[in-house]
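User: These chains co-purify. Model them together.
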Amino acid sequence: MALDTVADYVSYARVLLQDQVVPYRYPDNDLVQALNIAVFESRRLRPDLYIGGAALPSFSAPDTTAVAIDPQYRMAFVYFMCGHAQLRDEENTQDARASEFLNKFSAQMVSIA
Amino acid sequence: MSTNPYVTRILDNLRVRLPGALDTALKLELFNVLNEFLKKSNAWQEDILVDVKPGVTDYPIEPADGVINRVMQVVNSAGINVRATFAVPPDLILEVAPVQNDTLTVTVSLTVADTDRDEFPVFPDWMFSNYYDDFIDGALGRMMSQPAKPYSNERLSIYHLRRFHNAVARAKAEIQHGNLYSAQSWRYPAFASGRQR
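Assistant: Joint model of the two components:
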């Protein structure tokens, strides 16, 4: 999986979320929305990811739309999607996982983590 | 992107020394480095021939490549300096209108012209070999000075930018001396060359 399209991101996030069996615990739309929010967050932390782009990319479905992110930072986006999805869970263990994913996203964006 | 081996090598050097850096950011800063280097050093110069007519003082000038940064010298066909200004490009304004047809040689210093972000700006190849290390220092210094990046490093940024600014000053002096080792910085004035007594 090369993490080229929205479907790739959603599908790989499901691997880390252990949510690969239908019916999904985390709906597709929620994960796509998490990807959109990851774009906003990455624009804040790393504006150089969008040099030359007139507008930020936005996605609406887990389809074959390309996600043009530099390969060095694609995994960080997946981590953000997982963390954002797990924020809604209430168990203590899930809270810790959510926080870990989100911290990993931030760390990878701004440091050699 | 250019297939110039120097450009490829410069980018490879930068990628190795700036973990997490994006190629688009490298190209952006490399453009800034070239622009600053050329504007401050006057290292890239070109002679433009301008045919002048009696009574006309305004002549737009255009280089073959790049963008004119400043006019270094204007001489007529007899080799005598002509007073002119270049306040608003591209118009060269002669202080005194010519009294006869003549061809002026306008020496200009150039800088890089804006280009597509994926393309490398047009630039003389000889400069890559002469100032290769200096361009790397400039780009490293600028990249490392960016805040909150994996490659941010204030101390190394200061180190590389100091080396870069020294290189700019050295290049400026070298160009003034015609890139000759230990060359004299003066020459006999025009009136001593035998044309006038």
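The mean pLDDT of chain B is 90.
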